[in-house]
Specification:
A hairpin with a 7-residue loop joins strand 2 and strand 3. The chain has helices spanning 7-16, 18-38, 69-80, 83-93, 103-112, 140-197, 206-239, 247-269, 274-378, 401-426, 433-437; strands at residues 43-51, 114-121, 129-137, 384-388. The protein starts with 6 loop residues before the first helix and ends in a 19-residue tail after the last helix. The chain is 69% helix and 7% strand. It has three domains: 14-39 and 399-421; 44-58 and 69-165 and 378-387, 2-Layer Sandwich (Alpha-Beta Plaits); 199-350. Helix 2 packs antiparallel against helix 10 (401-426). The chain is built from eleven helices and four strands, in the order H-H-E-H-H-H-E-E-H-H-H-H-E-H-H.
Length: 456
């Protein structure tokens, strides 16, 4: 059964073990104080930098979306704590002389001793960011120099990255524009060759083809009318007879008169009559002369007219054949126009798309060139501006020795009390009825102390 102690008993036990508690507490405090006093001083130096995003004229570039503080801070912190920046600072300041051959450990240690924190945005003007770079270390001069170099080296690295990106972008866009220019030239030559090969068969020539087809149709109708008229005149010439007032007509009329007289004489006098015989000879002569006149009439007038009319008929038929060929050609152009129009539309669409892309790329290349020139002209001043430069600290920022000494005092006091308590618990001396009860025998009587505690 565990024994409980009253406050008076605890105070009495502490009084009995006071020298042990004092000795243990003093020893612990001496050790802790020695350690605290021997801790190296830590210095802090910080620089405040204003981030001013590079702004270009709006006629060159559209406005960039505003980046939030968290994203900006993450970018800045990672950039300042990047290995190239830290390595350059370590070499420049000789921050860790003992780690000159172990750059990985030096970078890791410096990264722990650098703090980048956001201060806020500038109230007036374009969005800009204030951030503080704080460096901790044992050498006040190295700390101040590192705090000043970190944002500067980060600015140089950022500017170099932007310059490289700008040059790379400009070079890439120029190469793309050159390649697109060659493709555009080839596409334009292909389009022109197609138009030259099918100039009369494109939809834009439909109106001219329709007018030509209508004109050809009118000419065909005219030729058909001329052919019908020639055939009618040919029939009329073939059916024509000599005029009565002509030599042929008079010869035929004279022969007809002699024939009528001959018939009358035969009827009146018979075949053997001299008048009849004379009339027969006269009729033969008149008939022969009439036949000659008719032959001359047909030869001089009918056959010549028929030949001329036949020539007209042949000419009209040949013209009709040629006109029908032309009409078929015009109709074929009209029939094939939708097909060539669709192919021309495809070629034109590809050409227009390539031309628009080329124009856009050329514009982007010009913008990239302008951005590169503006970036080179502005330099790093358009990216960062030092608000508060780092200075060498006059007093160390740590460690807080007074606080550590107070903690050491509290700790040593607690340790002394623990030592006193432990000694009291481990002591088996019997000092009263309560301690005697722990022996397992009954206590019959207790004699109190008589006289002073200390004997002479």
């Amino acid at each position: 059964m565990e024994r409980t102690y009253t406050v008076q008993e605890l105070l009495a036990a502490l009084k009995r073990r006071r020298w042990l508690a004092l000795a243990v507490g003093a020893a612990a405090f001496a050790v802790a104080a020695t350690v605290v006093l021997l801790l190296p001083s830590e210095y802090r130096s910080e620089s405040m930098v204003q981030v001013e995003p590079h702004r270009l004229a709006p006629e060159y570039f559209p406005a960039n979306p505003v980046i939030g503080f968290d994203d900006r801070m993450r970018t800045l912190k990672h950039g300042i704590l990047a290995r190239p920046v830290l390595e350059r600072v370590i070499r420049e300041t000789n921050f860790y002389p003992k780690l000159a051959d172990d750059m990985d450990e030096a970078v890791a240690r410096l990264r722990k001793h650098v703090e980048v924190r956001l201060e806020g945005e500038v109230p007036a003007g374009p969005p800009a960011l204030l951030f503080v770079v704080e460096v901790r270390g044992r050498d006040r001069d190295k700390v101040a120099k590192a705090a000043a170099l970190l944002p500067r080296y980060y600015a140089e690295m950022t500017f170099q990255v932007l310059a490289d990106q700008s040059r790379s972008l400009h070079r890439t866009l120029e190469q793309q524009a050159g390649e697109m220019a060659r493709q555009l030239t080839a596409q334009e030559a292909k389009l022109l060759a197609f138009k030259a090969a099918h100039a009369a068969e494109l939809p834009e020539s439909n109106e001219a083809n329709m007018r030509a087809a209508a004109r050809t149709e009118s000419q065909i109708e005219q030729r058909l009318a001329n052919l019908a008229d020639a055939q009618r005149r040919r029939l009329a010439v073939l059916a024509s007879i000599p005029e009565a007032e002509s030599d042929t007509g008079r010869a035929q009329i004279a022969a007809e008169d002699v024939r009528r007289k001959l018939e009358t004489s035969r009827a009146s006098y018979g075949e053997q009559n001299p008048e009849v015989r004379r009339l027969e000879r006269q009729y033969q002569e008149a008939r022969q002369r009439g036949d000659q006149e008719v032959g001359r009439y047909h030869r001089d007038r009918v056959e010549a007219q028929i030949a001329r009319i036949e020539g007209e008929i042949v000419e009209n038929r040949a013209a009709l054949e040629q006109l029908r060929i032309e009409q078929a050609r015009f109709q074929a152009r009209l029939d094939v126009a939708p097909r060539w129009g669709a192919e021309l539309a495809n070629l034109s669409r590809d050409y227009d798309a390539l031309k628009a892309k080329y124009t856009t790329t050329v514009g982007k290349a010009a913008d990239a060139d302008a951005a590169q020139n503006l970036l080179q002209a502005d330099g790093m001043s358009s990216l960062f501006r030092m608000i508060q430069p780092a200075v060498s600290p006059e007093r160390p920022a740590g460690p807080a020795r007074l606080i550590l000494l107070l903690l050491a005092l509290f700790g040593s006091t607690a340790l002394g009390l623990v030592a006193a308590g432990a000694a009291e618990l481990l002591d088996s001396s019997v000092r009263g009825p309560e301690d005697a009860g722990a022996l397992g025998v009954p206590v019959l009587a207790s004699i109190p102390r008589i006289g002073p505690r200390k004997s002479a």
